[in-house]
Amino acid sequence: MRAKRSRRRARPGPGSERRAAGARERRRGRLPILIGGGVLAVALAALLVVKPWADEGDAVPWSTLGTADVHALAFDPGDGSRLYFGHHGGLLESRDGGRSWRAATVSGADAMNVRASEGRVQIAGHDVYLESTDGGATWQPVPNDLPGLDLHAFAIDPGDADHAWAFAAGFGLFETTDAERHFTLRQSGNWGYLAAYREGDAAVLLAVRDQGGARSRDGGASWEPLAYPGAALAGGFAAATDGSAIYVATSAGLRRSTDRGASWQSTAFTGVALAVAVAPADPLDVVIVDEATRFYRSRDGGATWPGPEG
Questions:
Q1: Which residue in 148, 168, 257, 163 sits closest to 213, CA to CA?
Q2: 16 φ, ψ to 5°?
Q3: Nearest CA to 296 among 256, 263, 254, 265?
Q4: Under DSSP, is residue 56 helix (H, G, I), strand (E, B) or coil?
């Protein structure tokens, strides 16, 4: 048989009332601390809700793309409100400056690289080299004589749409001067994130090489290093048409150079920048996508990053 529990309470011993009173006083003393901590917690929670981008240097995202990876950004040269974003799963386009995005008419094609010139948009990636000459309504393969179409980097001369460069994995860096129909090998090795600008009548090529930046003024035949931007490169370069502003995506924010890569300055975006593009008509109009696929836009060279209504 189970023994019954005794319900008889123990009588308070000597000093028990004093101990109980002391406990009540200690609880009353802690109450303001607990309340104050609760208010602080609520305030911090509210701050995080209101400013989820605080870690990005007060940059306000315009939209979130939601793709599995981040690779390429490009402006339409004739329309600053139209942009393209490339990823391994295809191509997205925005017609409202980056506020909203939709899948382009080409889907499922790897768009590691996106380049737009007057009247033409091109994408290149793993065994993909396509172009549209009707604003993206239809797409066709680009006729070419490259030895391979695993294209990890691509750039177009902003002063001559028939002049371009491509890095074919396993083969090297190639240059074309006849709208990509015929390519000439410039250098073997590995290259990434090509971009180009103009100095007078000459094209200047930028590239990521050996984890650093490099520049070529002879079509890719020879190279010189760029200054270290102060943080590891996480993406590539974007340059104004005349090279008056060059941007580079790093693991500690977006950096900007106004002396063609001789020195770099931090911008107000301090998160991880992966893709970057600058408007052809305005060297201060720059856009980025970060590691969380959030899209940002600055119209003052990266000094501020307001939201779409800013």
A1: 257
A2: -65, -35
A3: 254
A4: helix
Residues 302 and 286 sit within 8 Å (Cβ to Cβ): yes
pLDDT tens digits for range 23-32: 444 444 433 3
The residue type found at 259 is D
Specify the residue for token string 């090489």.
209
CA-CA distance, 203 to 221, in Å (whole number)?
13
Report which DSSP code applies to 58: S
Cα end-to-end span (Å), the chain: 79
Q: Which residues of the chain have pLDDT under 70?
A: 1-57, 310
For β-strands 140-141 and 253-257, DSSP reports them as unpaired
At 165, which helix (H) or strand (E)? Answer: strand 164-168
How many whole angstroms separate alpha carbon 157 and alpha carbon 165?
8
Please answer whether residues 232 and 250 qualify as being in contact, where contact means their C-beta atoms are separated by less than 8 angstroms: yes
Which neighbouring-strand residues pair with 185? 174
173-194 pLDDT tens trace: 999 999 888 999 999 988 889 9
Are 183 and 219 in contact by the 8 Å Cβ rule? The answer is: no
Q: Which value, in Å, is the radius of gyration of the alpha carbons in the chain?
A: 28
Q: Which amino acid is at 138?
A: T
Which segments of the chain does DSSP mark as H helices, in order? 16-50
* Whole-Å CA distances, 270 to 13, 32, 56, 222, 227: 65, 38, 5, 33, 19
Q: Cα separation of 146 and 134, whole Å?
A: 25
